[in-house]
Amino acid sequence: MIPVLIDCDPGIDDTLALIYLAALHHLGEIELVGVTTTAGNTTATQAAGNARWVLAQLLIDAPVLPGRPRPRHVELTTTPETHGPTGLGYLEVPEAPETPGGDWAEVWRGAVDKHADLRLIVTGPLSNLAAFQQTHPEHYARLGNITVMGGAVNYRGNTTPTAEWNFWVDPHAAAEVFEDPPAASIRLCSLEVTEQFLIDPARLGALVDSLGATPVAGYLADILRFYFEFHRAQGEGYQAQIHDLLTCMIALGTIPYEDVSTTIAVEADSPLLRGTSVADLRGHWDRPHNARLVTSADVEAAHSELARAAGALAVLWAIR
Ligand code: BDR
Ligand code: CA
């Protein structure tokens, strides 16, 4: 069973990622050892409330804790226009249970100590990862398998002409992590790959059908409709890019993908280029490689994999 820790900011595509991970947890393919949140799509506290509610719907009782409340050196910007006023589109979760006390970094530290084969998946800004680097350097260095959704690498951005949202929100965190990476290369799922994974109303209908009596299925239309409308307003059509779910599948190797070893750097301080990420694919910088940049992923396999996970949840609810 693969131990998984996810650091996220649900967030609509983060929510689909959590549903997928919950299914794999119930299947016994992974152990979801913890969920921590970053401030990005919404506040870290709201994101934790959302994650806790989603996981409660799915009968997962992993610890869920909010992480750092703001970026390292810039003001926090959230994006209600993309993910809805509280991060879950048109859905406002019923009063989420109180956040249990606890320190998110202790969850990370405990997970590193307990699981040598831990997979860390980051689908929000890198604020927690960069903070962990500073507060727990020895444990940070032992993070052996990290997958990040972020960056528009040598590619147009979705937030500025050159920057992707997660890197733009906390550019200093992203820059620091690639400047001083853990022992293992970071597997980077950037926009040019993740934006290929699209769900439209027909795909959503099929997903809801596959989920059967799983309670969360009843909420997906309200959650996704907001994301469809946002993408249409951006000229992308009435559909949605599901970055974070594709990232989880790549992190777990449940779909085919290709990657390349390279050196990534992130610009933090330039006003125009804030959050811009660059891969030195030709070795101009003569710096050590710090990332495995994912260059393609099989999105049809991703749709099949999502259907497999949804079907597993349906079976679980059918036999309860
Ligand atoms: C990333 O930004 C967020 O809005 C999404 O949840 C995803 O993690 C895509 O740029
Ligand atoms: Ca996210």
TrEMBL record:
EC number of the protein: 3.2.-.-
GO BP annotations, alphabetical order: purine nucleoside catabolic process
InterPro entries: Inosine/uridine_hydrolase_dom, IUNH, Ribo_hydro-like
GO cellular component, one term: cytosol
Keyword Secreted: no
Alphabetized Gene3D superfamilies for the sequence: Ribonucleoside hydrolase-like (3.90.245.10)
Keyword vocabulary terms for this entry: Glycosidase, Hydrolase
Claim: Hydrolase is one of the keywords in the record: yes
Stretches assigned to the Inosine/uridine-preferring nucleoside hydrolase domain: 4-302
Any one GO molecular-function label of the UniProt entry: purine nucleosidase activity
SUPFAM superfamilies: Nucleoside hydrolase
Protein name per Swiss-Prot or TrEMBL: Pyrimidine-specific ribonucleoside hydrolase RihA
Gene: rihA1
